[in-house]
Amino acid sequence: MLSSSGLAVFLLLATSSAHTIGQPCLYSAILPSGLQVNCSSRNLIELPHLPSDTTELHVQDNRLTSVSSGLFDRLVGLKKVSLSGNPFHCDCRIQYLRRWLLKNRDIVSQVPACTSPSSVAQKAITELGDDYFFSCALTGNCNGRIYSMMMGVMLCCLIVLLLWSLRLAKNSTYTLIIAEKHSGFEAHSLHSLKPKHRRRLPTDLSEVSADFDALTWTEDAERPLVNMEILPQILDVLHRKHNIKIKST
Predict the structure, then answer these.
(1) 22: enclosing H helix or E strand
(2) Which of 37, 85, 183, 192 is least buried, going by the fewest C-beta atoms within 10 A?
(3) Do β-strands 35-38 and 26-29 pair in parallel, antiparallel, or remain unpaired?
(4) How far is CA 227 from CA 184, 190, 234, in A?
(5) Are the C-beta atoms of 59 and 47 separated by less than 8 Å?
(6) Cα separation values, 188 from 179, 180, 209, 238, Å
(7) Nearest to 186 by CA among 235, 216, 232, 220
(8) pLDDT tens figures, 41-81
(9) What mean pLDDT is predicted for residues 10-15?
(10) Beta bridge pairs of residue 27
């Protein structure tokens, strides 16, 4: 038996979940355990959230045109359902309700009928054949194929763009413009990085003291410039292997 606090929670849930256009559903306990949900004649255009322990559901005489997919799947304890008196529109969205009605014929008091379109008006939803929904399957497959094609085209365009960018970068030529005042290359920049031979120090202490002031570790202020005869070879290697051109102004 449901406690009074549980009923209060269910009533609050119904009030907050009902559609703004319609009125809240009524909840009442059923002995020994269960819950009756009465949403009949509430001017609802969609069903509210239903408790999982619902055993009886009455939603006749409302303004329902379809039922959301999966709405009844978690109501495993349903024993009685009434859906008649609603203007169901039998298009592709009615397929879920049709499948559910076919599986649960025994608990449905009266099978609801289609109101629109006119080609199936007043026809029971369970009487709609699979061929009636053939166009729905085509539409779903078509949408999936269109999406796949669009994604494939976008991927191909991206690959082509990347290949084009790589080819453009490979064939690009870089030009370095060097002013005339910077056109000289100092020879020390091309010297070997190997350590120089150490200077032999005299063994005589007098010679050490005499020559100590003459020893300097600073480089000459004026360094010879590199031989300009090898410059064309350097420029040719940079151009052929790295597409780099150097111009002097």
Answers:
(1) none
(2) 192
(3) antiparallel
(4) 10, 11, 12
(5) yes
(6) 20, 20, 31, 21
(7) 220
(8) 999 999 988 999 999 999 999 999 999 999 999 999 999 99
(9) 47
(10) 37
| Exposed / middle / buried, residue 181 (Cβ in 10 Å: 0-12, 13-18, 19+) | exposed
Residue ranges of alpha helices (H) inside 30-133 are: 95-103
Rounded to whole angstroms, what are the CA distances from 204 to 67, 188, 201, 209?
A: 111, 34, 9, 9
d(CA 51, CA 4): 16
Q: pLDDT per residue over 129-180, tens digit each?
A: 999 998 887 765 555 566 677 788 888 898 988 888 888 777 766 665 655 5
Which residue is it, tokens 């619902």? 54
Give me the count of residues in the chain: 249
Tokens 């907050």 sit on residue: 16
How many degrees, rounded to 5, is the angle at CA 57 between CA 51 and CA 58? 135
Q: Is residue 187 predicted with pLDDT exceeding 70?
A: no
- Per the CB < 8 A criterion, the answer to whether 55 and 76 are in contact is no
